[in-house]
Design goal:
four-stranded antiparallel β-sheet; three-stranded antiparallel β-sheet; alpha+beta; 26% helix; 9 strands; globular; single chain; 191 residues
Length: 191
């Protein structure tokens, strides 16, 4: 599925399902191949040439942020969960994306990514906790900052829900609240 978030036609998102596990391929390799396939679909959708075999489709900066060597002018963000891969591309503004499926281990790490004031409001409700996680992780990716489980732990003092600089799009991918996709964008394109 390829789409643009509401009000952001300059951003293209591709969400695709991971294939069933295969014994000859690791989960990490399946995620990498699926992300590359999603990126090929996005580049085609944007009428951009696919890179030659001389270029890796996706490379990473020392910070871990992904980029497209054959299209360094594009902003790229990639995320994966147990079931899906999500890729976001923009030619005009930074973008961060996170897709996550609910898992009980989020309860164990909630104190690492929720501030003291957020913890009582989000930790009691699985969907709220999952949404808070994806908002923060997508925003960290947008800002090219270390993630939520980095060492030492990074905690935003509050969710960026009312920031004039960041626009958030939160989508229930599963229709039942156990898988959330969040897209974080700089409010205005700057290119």
């Amino acid at each position: 599925m390829i789409f643009s978030p509401h009000g952001a036609p300059d951003v293209r998102i591709c969400v695709t399902s991971l294939p069933a596990p295969a014994p000859a391929i690791s989960q990490r390799e399946a995620e990498r191949l699926c992300a590359a396939s999603a990126l090929r679909h996005l580049l085609s959708d944007l009428h951009l040439p696919l890179p030659s075999d001389a270029y890796p489709l996706i490379s990473h900066l020392p910070s871990g942020a992904p980029f497209i060597p054959s299209h360094p002018e594009l902003f790229l963000s990639v995320s994966h969960s147990a079931m899906h891969v999500a890729v976001a591309v923009s030619a005009s503004r930074p973008v961060g994306i996170d897709i996550e499926r609910w898992r009980p281990s989020l309860l164990k790490v909630a104190r690492r990514f929720l501030s003291d004031s957020e913890f009582p409001n989000f930790s009691s409700f699985p969907r709220s906790l999952l949404t808070a996680w994806t908002i923060k992780e997508a925003t960290f990716k947008l800002l090219n900052s270390p993630g939520l489980l980095s060492e030492p732990p990074r905690v935003m003092t509050s969710l960026p829900l009312f920031s004039p600089d960041v626009r958030l799009h939160v989508i229930d991918v599963s229709q039942n609240g156990d898988q959330i996709l969040t897209i974080a964008l700089m409010h205005r394109p700057h290119r």
